[in-house]
Amino acid sequence: MKKSEDNRVVIGVSGSIAAYKACEVLRGLSQEGVETRVVLTPNASRFVTPLTMGTLSGNPVYQDPYDPNVWEMAHLSLASWARLIVIVPATADLIARLAWGGAGGLLEGLVLAARSPVAVCPAMDAAMWEHPATRENVAKLSKFGYRIWGPVKGPLASGRTGMGRLLEPDEIVSRALAALRPKNPAARRPSSARAIPGDIAEPGAARGQAAPLASGR
Ligand SMILES: Cc1cc2nc3c(=O)[nH]c(=O)nc-3n(C[C@H](O)[C@H](O)[C@H](O)COP(=O)(O)O)c2cc1C
User: Fold this and answer.
1) CA atoms of 153 and 164, how far apart (whole Å)
2) What is the whole-number distance in angstroms between the Cα of residue 17 and the centre of ligand 1?
3) Who's near 145: CB < 8 A, 6+ residues apart?
4) What is the pTM of this model?
5) Mutate which of 43, 88, 110, 158 to test ligand 1's pocket (most atoms within 8 Å of Cβ)?
6) Structural contact between residues 21 and 89, judged by C-beta atoms closer than 8 angstroms
7) pLDDT of 119-176, one tens digit each?
8) Could you tell me which of 79, 87, 154, 176 has the fewest CB atoms within 10 Å of its CB?
9) What single-letter DSSP state applies at residue 66?
10) Chain CA centroid to CA 53, Å
């Protein structure tokens, strides 16, 4: 993929045990020529280091909305820079914050300010995923037009098997690449053969998939 401003992806990472898989997503996108910037929640940096993420992305990593070394307001400048925002992994807590429109952290502020599509890749224990609070929060994000990619059923960090496992990194990469190429209708949605259990319908897709990337969610 040619580097251009249509190729800009912000990867948001939150504090899940699956955070290390964001490194694989980042590497996969970089290998495809996608320009990436990374935003870590404070808890995400307990799981992955800014050094690793910055090295894989080749760009600075953003963590602090009040960083005095970032002269511009990072949440706004990143929001207008991004053509796609992919949150991988998204914790239950972050999903809840996004559902009520929180802007207390850099990642939430960025999502609230964004006009580009937002894809949320949840990862959590099955009980958390199945809790009515999470169900309601995810439905709300879906209503906002955010794309919900996964989770899938599989082995979880707890040792149990269930729903809540992060969608495989290579699948996230191919969905992100497809989202960056909205003019190719075949690339907009995974084929039914690749439909992922737990992938949620996107009733607000008019703000995302179907719209030009610069103007939809
Ligand atoms: C070892 C460990 C692993 C965790 N993994 C997850 C997870 O996979 N999903 C999740 O929703 N929360 C997980 N949590 C809880 C979150 O870290 C916690 O809710 C935190 O407040 C999320 O912060 P953030 O969303 O701001 O990054 C984990 C906590 C610990 C200590």
Assistant:
1) 6
2) 7
3) 117, 118, 202, 204, 205, 206, 207, 208, 216, 217
4) 0.86
5) 43
6) yes
7) 999 999 999 999 999 999 999 999 999 999 999 999 999 889 999 999 999 999 999 9
8) 154
9) T
10) 15
- Give the whole-angstrom CA distance, residue 51 versus residue 38: 11
Nearest CA to ligand 1 atom 21: 93
The tokens of 47 are what?
Answer: 């799981």
Copy the structure tokens of residue 145. 């037009």
Residue of 39, 76, 70 lying closest to 54 (CA atoms): 39
Domain architecture of the chain: domains with CATH? 5-207 (3.40.50.1950)
Tell me which residues have their CB closer than 6 angstroms to ligand 1. Answer: 14-18, 41, 43-44, 91-94, 123-124, 128
